[in-house]
Design brief:
The protein is of the alpha+beta class and 210 residues long. The protein has two domains: 3-103, Ribosomal Protein L22, Chain A, CATH 3.90.470.20; 108-209, 4'-phosphopantetheinyl transferase domain (Ribosomal Protein L22, Chain A, Alpha-Beta Complex). Helices cover 28% and strands 35% of the residues. It has helices at residues 24-28, 35-42, 47-62, 116-119, 135-156, 163-166, and strands at residues 3-10, 13-19, 70-72, 78-80, 85-91, 94-100, 105-111, 167-169, 178-185, 188-199, 202-209. It has a five-stranded antiparallel sheet with strand order 7-11-10-9-8. The protein has a four-stranded antiparallel sheet with strand order 1-2-6-5.
Length: 210
């Protein structure tokens, strides 16, 4: 089974990443879905989405959970029945989860694509990146910023939160593999730690509430 990577963030928090190479039938083996999740999967037209859905259940098993341990609140935010925090992501043939016993957490995996140059103005002040002359570096940096905001949005899970107006990701270097961020929404300020890694043309970003 292609468990791609486990990252021990701290003693209470781990990130699990899966590279989806198996068939749907292979991924179904050993996985018991609740009726709700079976119905969700049956409604997925894309085989890739179904394979990703099943691979996440394998990641949960790596973390010691079964499908019945996973629930969702009214905003669609996942949580575990033992009270531990979880966040889920999938992008093409990579899927990931982050599980923590102490911190609110979010994770996002994104493919590094040129398309991000066209939509960057929607989620970040693009003028801040004028000093980056190399297109590849700009794509990488914007993908980290987008992934950070996606991960933070998953933690905050509040309708009306704007990527460009309410979430601020502090500047960073690639070598640091980390930064910080703040969300200021309706007068409430919250702070977060951000970490990121890149592999095979993808970016994985995970966030922890400070």
């Amino acid at each position: 089974m292609p468990l791609y990577k486990i990252v021990k963030v701290n003693k209470n928090t781990k990130v699990y990443i899966w590279k989806v190479t198996e068939s749907e039938q292979e991924l179904s083996e050993g996985i018991n879905l609740t009726q709700h999740c079976q119905n969700r999967m049956d409604g997925m037209k894309s085989e890739m989405h179904r394979r990703g859905f099943l691979s996440i259940r394998h990641l949960m098993a790596e973390a010691g959970y079964v499908d019945a341990d996973l629930h969702y609140d009214e905003f669609g935010k996942p949580y575990l029945k033992d009270g531990n925090k979880i966040s889920i992501t999938h992008s093409n043939h990579f899927t990931g989860i982050i599980v923590s016993s102490t911190s609110e957490v979010g994770v996002d995996i994104e493919m590094q694509r040129e398309k991000i140059l066209r939509i960057a103005h929607k989620f970040t002040p693009i003028e801040e990146y004028r000093t980056i002359a190399n297109t590849d570096a700009l794509i990488r940096k914007l993908t980290i910023v987008w992934g950070s905001k996606e991960a933070l949005y998953k933690i905050y899970a509040t309708q009306g939160l704007s990527f460009i107006h309410h979430i601020n990701v502090k500047d960073f270097t690639f070598d640091s593999a980390a930064t910080t961020a703040e969300i200021l929404y309706r007068g409430n300020l919250s702070a977060y730690q951000i970490r990121f890694m890149e592999f095979e043309g993808f970016t994985c970003v995970y966030a922890l509430k400070s």
